[in-house]
Write a structure and sequence with these properties.
With about 350 residues, the protein is α/β, with parallel strands linked by helices. Helix content is about 25%, strand content about 25%. It is built from eight helices and twelve strands. It has a seven-stranded mixed barrel. Strands 3-2-4-5 form a four-stranded mixed beta sheet, with no helix packed on it. It starts with 8 loop residues before the first helix and ends with a strand.
Length: about 350
């Protein structure tokens, strides 16, 4: 039995030609889309905003303490809230093709580039504000969400004002505010006017990152908080009390909540804010006292913010805080990365 096509020869040829045309057009669109996606990927920049953590061999007399005379590689002591990190000798596990080396490290949570969880500060009744998250409900490190640990960067750059203040002492900091002044009344720190300048960018989930130009001094002064250098006798720039007040005011007016604040300084709070009104830490740490009860995070001791400023001018950047997920933690060392799309 012979079967006949319902199409004529001419119609069949035309359909084949149209099919080839459609296939070719579809292929062009597909490969153009793939090339576009590849181009977008190529335009991403990744900036490491993290300082290295110095480590030391354990002391012979007390293995829980570092022997500062035995640094690992080029480690030098840095300012912090506890002793330097101890790196214990690696255990060796041999195989027939070589061996594994596995060391242990003892480190305080808030050492070097680090994040703070909301449970890091326990407010008393006087410092609690209406609507505050109760202490028992404040997140520990393992409870922090990806949405909190990532977010669009809103950048504040006061580094030029800080450099101008440092120039009064040959580019070097001094604990005496009559020589270099980074008090809350100084222009060389983050003020309320700087928060007002970014008010339109303050929205849910953003990270406010302050470039102070202070990370160049990281490690200067070693462990001595009173020495000229990074801590500088608590005469260092940061978010002033008025800046934190203004930030909270804007969030409440707009009905939004940022994910966190970050800076290239010891505490993110200004030195004067850390010190408080007397030598008993009265009225101190305004960023810590007011932000944690709002479930807002803090990242301290950032690096390479000058690079971030340059790239951020050409595109949009987001912050990624690679936080340790240890149960019950109040924070910890973090590998902090900026991801920028150079448009």
């Amino acid at each position: 039995m012979r079967h006949y096509s319902i199409f004529s020869k001419e119609k069949s040829m035309k359909l084949r030609q149209n099919g080839c045309t459609i296939f070719a057009a579809t292929s062009i669109v597909f490969f153009a889309l793939m090339a576009s996606m590849k181009q977008v990927r190529a335009e991403l920049s990744f900036i490491d905003l993290t300082h290295s953590i110095p480590t030391f061999k354990p002391s012979v007399t007390d293995p829980t303490k570092p022997d500062l005379s035995k640094p690992i590689a080029n480690s030098k002591p840095i300012a912090g809230f506890y002793h330097q990190a101890v790196l214990y000798p690696a255990d060796i596990w041999p195989t027939n093709e070589g061996e594994f080396a596995s060391a242990a490290v003892l480190i305080q949570e808030h050492n070097g580039t680090s994040f703070n969880s909301p449970n890091h500060y326990i407010n008393n009744a006087q410092s609690l504000e209406p609507g505050a998250v109760p202490q028992k409900e404040r997140k520990a490190s393992e409870a922090l969400t990806i949405n909190q640990l990532t977010g669009k960067i809103v950048l504040i750059d006061v580094s030029a004002r800080v450099r101008q203040e440092l120039s009064k002492n040959g580019g070097m900091p001094h604990p005496d505010t009559s020589i270099t002044d980074f008090s809350d009344n100084s222009n060389a720190t983050v003020r309320a006017k700087d928060i007002e300048a970014i008010a339109d960018q303050i929205e849910d989930g953003v990270w406010i990152v302050a470039h102070l130009g202070w990370s160049q001094l990281y490690g200067m002064g070693g462990e001595d908080w009173n020495a000229p250098g990074y801590v500088n006798g608590l005469n260092h720039p940061g978010f002033t009390r008025e800046a934190i007040d203004k930030l909270i005011e804007i969030m409440e007016i707009k009905g939004v909540k940022i994910s966190g604040i970050a800076a290239d300084s010891l505490s993110t709070d200004s030195g004067e804010g850390v010190n408080g009104s007397d030598n008993k830490w009265s009225d101190s740490w305004p960023a810590h006292v007011r932000l944690y009860q709002r479930d807002i995070l803090i990242v301290e001791n950032l690096a390479n913010l000058d690079t971030l400023v340059t790239i951020h001018q050409r595109g949009k950047c987001s912050l990624v805080v690679s936080a340790l997920k240890h149960v019950g933690g109040t924070g910890g060392p973090a590998r902090v990365i900026a991801v920028c799309n150079n448009e």
